[in-house]
Design goal:
The chain is α+β, with helices and mostly antiparallel strands. It has a domain of 70 residues: 2-Layer Sandwich (Alpha-Beta Plaits). Helices cover 37% and strands 21% of the residues. The chain has a four-stranded antiparallel β-sheet. It has a four-stranded antiparallel β-sheet with strand order 5-6-4-7.
């Protein structure tokens, strides 16, 4: 996995948008921010607000799709574990109630509108043979597929299974310690997680679970002084590439490639095989 690096102002913009800037995952919700010259006064403040607003809008759009897909199995979050997890995540980032309710009803077919999103995985390599998995939710695969081929021109788009073998499909729980005595290792063992990624200074801990145990573990963590920030199913690289071996120019090329893919409206998540 890969740890994005932001300057202080960009970190602030991410925080306003409901993101943890220290998260070890590239979750594809915000392209890389490269804003400098903090002494730009009012101009920078306006730019920061614009970045935060755009990031927030993109995040809401992605969550609306997830809610609509999950609601196919019932619009009651208490009876639909997957929907409950997504709804909780939407509330944590302050999604307006009207937006949330509309997505629930639309996904459950209560509005009379025909909605169908298909989850599609694209596998391949970024420049310099960095493996990645791109998860999309699309209402038109015939449109998305050729657009992905174009975006992968500077890398390499693989066939199904060509990269997936090098990733584990896991549950991912981002959680913040609620006290100085919170023990991530103990919490992982007692809550039933398979593994965890210890928090960097000021960051959150990532707990990894079997996909079937995601809901159970996320609820259990509160008993061990961890507050859940986000929950999702995703892909964890088995043999991540060390970015130190790429060099600054190569790493920047990879980042530009990822940002271009992330900007596509159908992309929900990007999982990259780089050491965090």
């Amino acid at each position: 996995m890969y740890n994005l690096s932001f300057d202080a102002a960009a970190t602030s913009a991410l925080a306003q948008a409901g993101h943890d800037p220290h998260c070890i995952l590239i979750d594809a919700r915000i392209p890389r921010l490269t804003v400098r010259n903090l002494a730009m006064g009012a101009q920078w403040k306006a730019k920061g607000k614009e970045l935060a607003a755009n990031a927030r809008g993109r995040l809401f759009g992605k969550l609306v799709k997830e809610i609509m897909v999950a609601a196919r199995n019932g619009a009651d979050p208490m009876m639909n574990p997957r929907l409950r997890l997504v709804v909780e995540q939407a509330r944590k980032v302050s999604m307006p109630k009207e937006t949330l309710d509309r997505a629930l009803k639309k996904g459950a077919g209560l509005t009379g509108e025909a909605v169908h999103f298909e989850r599609v995985l694209y596998e391949g390599f970024a420049p310099h043979q960095v493996p990645l998995m791109v998860e999309c939710l699309t209402d038109n695969v015939k449109r998305t597929a050729p657009e992905m081929r174009v975006l992968f021109r500077k890398g390499q788009l693989g066939t199904s299974g060509s990269v997936a073998w090098d990733f584990d499909h896991v549950g991912m729980i981002e959680a913040a310690a609620s006290g100085a005595d919170a023990d991530a290792e103990l919490a992982a063992i007692e809550a039933g997680a398979q593994d965890f990624q210890a928090a960097d200074e000021g960051g959150n801990t990532i707990f990894f679970t079997d996909p079937a145990d995601l809901d159970l573990v996320s609820r259990a963590l509160a008993d061990y002084r961890f507050n859940v920030v986000s929950v999702k199913l995703g892909y964890r690289p088995k043999n991540p590439v060390d970015p130190a071996g790429l060099g600054a120019a190569a790493l920047e090329e990879v980042e530009h490639f990822l940002a271009a893919i992330d900007a596509h409206d159908d992309v929900q998540e990007i999982y990259v095989g780089l050491v965090g």
